[in-house]
Amino acid sequence: MTTASEDRYLASTARRNRKATAPQLSSELAAATGTVTSWQTIYRRLNEKGIYARKLRVCVLLSLQKKRDRFNWCKEHQNWTEHQWSRVLFTDESRVSLTGDSKRVYIWRESGTRNDPSNIVERDRFGSGGVMVWGGIMIDGRTPLHVFSSGSVTGQIYRDEVLDPYVRLFRGAYGPDFLFMDDNARPHRANLVDEFLESEDIKRIPWPPNSPDLNPIENLWDYLGRAIARIHPPPRDVNALKTALLEEWRLIPQTVVNNVISSLKTRCDM
User: Fold this and answer.
1) Of 55, 70, 77, 153, which is the most exposed, with the fewest CB atoms less than 10 Å away?
2) What is the predicted pLDDT for the residue at 62?
3) The whole model's pTM is what?
4) Does 216 lie in the same domain as 94?
5) What is d(CA 109, CA 144) in angstroms, rounded to the nearest whole number?
6) Are 112 and 51 in contact, with CB atoms under 8 Å apart?
7) 74 and 138: one domain?
8) Does 245 fall in a domain?
């Protein structure tokens, strides 16, 4: 049991050090008051104070012009129907490391404070190392997960390993209303990529710069990362990691895919 003053101490400490873990808070409480508590009690007491463990939000730097572009894109697409979104193949690359997902950091925060500056960390680019994968999702469909042959992606690799074997086939199966979404990464905007898309009559949906949070496939990368983290024993080498990624991607329920795409209206309203 904890006293009311100890509960206030816990809440104050969690607000000062939002990245502290429950065991760390328990240790600090014991050092300050002599009261020994379990981490479960720490969670309960903080929850009673309206403070919860939530994933730290990661953002990217946006200039004023990029903010305008993002606003205009959301305004243009906020009333799109599910049928309109069903035409889009949402794609992206992601890095996966043998050492786990370093971006999965949790903090203590109150409800409704997700976008407070103290609860956000800025990110401008990928870290180094790990396996690079690519995937695409649609309502009622997805591509196989592709593991790149090298750790980096160039325009030629993107065309030869992604666009030709996957995107071109999806365009052929869906028909002329098909829309292809990729972000504004340099390899995606190479001249040879543009030429390939034009030759195959693959239409792109314009995408605002530095807006990964608008892309529903980002939720799938998180889902995939959590699935890999649950594997025991964990993958010990790159080949084992590749095998696990391919299998866990295949096992993601299509309802999960459909739900994250259906969330686009909410994303556009933000």
Assistant:
1) 55
2) 73
3) 0.72
4) yes
5) 37
6) no
7) yes
8) yes
- Local structure of 22: helix, strand or coil: helix
Rounded to whole angstroms, what are the CA distances from 192 to 154, 159, 197? 11, 8, 9
Rounded CA-CA distance 56/218 in Å is: 15
Could you give the CA distance from residue 77 to residue 74 in angstroms, rounded to a whole number? 5
Confidence of residue 127 (pLDDT cuts 50, 70, 90): very low
Task: List Cβ neighbours of 1 (8 Å cut-off, separation of 6 or more).
Answer: none
Retrieve residue 188's tokens: 């995606």
> Exposure of 43 by Cβ count < 10 A (0-12 exposed, 13-18 middle, 19+ buried)?
middle
pLDDT band at 232 (very low <50, low <70, confident <90, very high): confident
Please, are residues 82 and 263 in contact by the beta-carbon 8 Å criterion? no
Sorting pLDDT into bands at 50, 70 and 90, what band is 125? very low
Distances (CA, A) of 83 to 80, 95, 201, 239, 253: 8, 31, 21, 39, 20
Q: State whether residue 53 is helix, strand or coil.
A: strand
